[in-house]
Amino acid sequence: MTGRSLRARLAVAGVLSITLALLVAALSLVALFERHVERRIGAELTSQLNQLAAAVRVTADGGLAVAPRPADPRFEAPLSGLYWQIDDIPAAQAGLGALRSRSLWDTELLLPPDRLTPGSVHAHVLPGPGGRPLLVRERSIRLVPATRAPDDTTGRSLRLAVAQDRAELIAARDAFAGDMVPYLGVIALLLLAATWVQIRIGLAPLEAVRRGVNAVRAGRAERLPEQHPDEVRPLVAEVNALLAAREQAVTQARSWTADLAHGLKTPLSALAADAERLRREGNAAVAADLDQLACHMRRRVDRELIRARVRAGARPRQAHADVTAALQRLLRTLKRTPDGARVDWQLTAADGAVAALADDDLLELLGNLLENAAKWARSRVDIRVAAGDPVQVSIEDDGPGVPADQLHRLGERGLRLDERKAGSGLGLAIARDVAEAYGGSLDFARAASGGLAAGVRLPAAPMGV
Model pTM? Predict the structure, then answer.
């Protein structure tokens, strides 16, 4: 896949989307877990705060005591991370200190000066021992003597606080995040697999269109099938409309070419009649020139008709032709010509060499190559046919050959590298046109005998055709 690949773009977009979604999900889950754990810790601190409020007493000498003391052993271990503190509000205002758990050691919680409604619980995050952040729950209570008179409203206002080191919350959050990473990896793999499947399914209609176009180009179909999703159907309709317009243009071009050829037949017949008349009048030289001119023009017209048919793509579907049979047929004809009769033709052919060409076009292709070989060969032409895909045909003569720097020019329209022999310079050009029109190729090289070697590669006909 390249940067211009739609599949690559969708894959990159999918990977980025999955990464962003998993990152947002991970951060959200961690934040949600942290809030949940913080609420649980807060609920435990509130419960311990209530136990502390139930245990606080005023001693006989007017002091404060906690009995029974909170059962959690962490309250007795110095700097354990769990703390409690009781402030006598008037004493605290006078700077007389506080009653606190052993775990606070020599540290005092500096509670904020907020106004507490009796019975309400306030939550804070305050610095504790060593400056570590603490989760704090606090409330105020009023202690009234049990023997007070009914109209006695005196009592002691106390401020109770229970705190826990926030490091436990951070540790739980980090452990949850670490445990979550492997599961996120599994989810990422599943999402990537789903994205890959989605891309394949989503682009399958485009692949079907590509195969359909290939079938049309190869001649196995005339139109693209219309059974496609709604999003692809407009494209298919436009391609089919283009194919219909092309077919109409090709039909018109063939008709115009046929009309042109038909229009030239009458002048050529008249030219041939004039040549015969001149011959009877004793102007044999002029008549021969006219005959040669008429023959050249008729051959030129016939070849242009073949060229127009091939270039228009007017080959039948499932075209096939036996290459060996075509060569044998051409050789029987060439051996009766002056050039062909003096040449020793050597044909080595494999069975099953069937090319995906129409018979007439294959005869035109091989006929031009064989005529060229017969024209320039001194005494021998070797022909070899190899079956397979592609079908390969090699034609080598023992003639003078072509200079190496001119080989690439062979097949150019109207090119004649040697004017000593008659010809229009169109034969090799037409041969190349036919080969390339069917998806094949025609190359030239120097033969081992010093002459010209023409190599043809043609697509093989499908099996069963």
Answer: 0.54
